[in-house]
Design brief:
It is a single chain. This protein has helices at residues 6-19, 70-76, 91-97, 111-120, 132-145, 150-162, 165-171, 175-178, 182-197, 216-236, 244-257, 262-271; strands spanning 26-35, 41-49, 55-61, 82-84, 101-103. The protein is built from twelve helices and five strands. By secondary structure, it is mostly helical. It has two domains: 6-106; 110-272, Orthogonal Bundle (Hypothetical protein af1432). Helices cover 48% and strands 11% of the residues.
Length: 283
């Protein structure tokens, strides 16, 4: 939130682009420096298209240049509508000035999302270096594709807090803090039940061996998990993991069982790569 240079602002935009998958937004990846009269860089601008295809812009004012009127002057000189986040505190500012804008990522204000965001913080996967929160944000993008329910999305955010035995034991005294919905908690626990029965080290002979349980919302959560994890596997591990052949077969069986076609996966594989320079599925 307090980047001091263009590199930091670009990282911020990319992080927001991953979050915005939950609303169907597509980042252009183009970041333009914004300069003052004397050529000093005071901020950066990027653009995205929302789910309806409308082009919108977002502006980042560098930390050392805030409070100097840069944003007000820029807003007065542009006609392109803006997109902002609920934690940017710009809604009242835009509304007061009659600036057209939309808000992306309102779901991030839910109790469940905030719980997993606090839990993961800035932690990253050791092998790939990918933020743990990317699993949640990209999974929410997959859930949007399948028109999943609000309860499924909220339960998806909770699943890392209850899936492993140690995490469940740690979370148990505070479950009431994470959600106010018994249905959401039940979905998270049923997801734990199904997912833990078929971890990747278990040999699965065919799709007939995979029981999905009685709840369609849990099937949607499993789609989010397998699509997102398979995407990361293909991007970071398909050439180097010692169990790459077994893992590739594992993910393919799961996607087949969940009725996720190769065409649908290819679409999501590309969409979850928010940068414009996308790696092809078979590349």
């Amino acid at each position: 939130m307090d980047a001091s240079d263009l590199e930091g602002a670009s990282r911020y935009f990319e992080h927001r682009a991953v979050q915005a998958l939950m609303d169907g937004d597509t980042w252009t990846g183009l970041v333009t420096p914004l300069t003052g009269e004397r050529g000093a860089v005071w901020g950066a601008r990027t653009t995205c298209r929302d789910a309806e295809g409308t082009l919108r812009q977002s502006v980042y004012v560098l930390a050392s240049h805030r409070g100097q009127g840069h944003l007000s002057r820029y807003v007065a000189a542009t006609d392109l509508p803006f997109v902002t986040g609920p934690d940017c505190d710009l809604e009242a500012y835009f509304t007061k000035r009659g600036v057209p804008y939309s808000v992306s990522g309102r779901f991030t204000t839910t109790r469940e999302y905030r719980a997993i965001e606090r839990h993961y913080g800035s932690r990253r996967a050791v092998r790939s270096g990918v933020d743990y929160m990317s699993h949640i944000d990209e999974g929410l993008g997959v859930l949007r594709h399948f028109n999943a329910s609000d309860a499924a999305r909220r339960a998806w955010c909770l699943h890392p807090l209850v899936q492993a035995d140690g995490d469940l034991a740690e979370s148990f005294p505070r479950l009431h803090e994470f959600t106010d919905s018994p249905q959401v908690l039940a979905l998270a626990m049923e997801y734990r039940n199904i997912a833990n029965a078929y971890l990747s080290h278990r040999e699965v002979a065919s799709t007939d061996d995979i029981a999905l349980g009685p709840l369609p919302d849990v099937a949607d959560m499993l789609r989010a998990d397998k699509v997102q994890n398979y995407k990361d596997f293909l991007l970071h591990h398909r050439e180097s993991h010692p169990r790459r052949s077994a893992l590739d077969r594992y993910f393919r069986l799961w996607l087949d069982r969940l009725s996720v076609s190769r065409e649908v996966f290819a679409t999501l594989f590309a969409r979850l790569q928010v940068r414009p320079e996308k790696i092809p599925l078979d590349g």
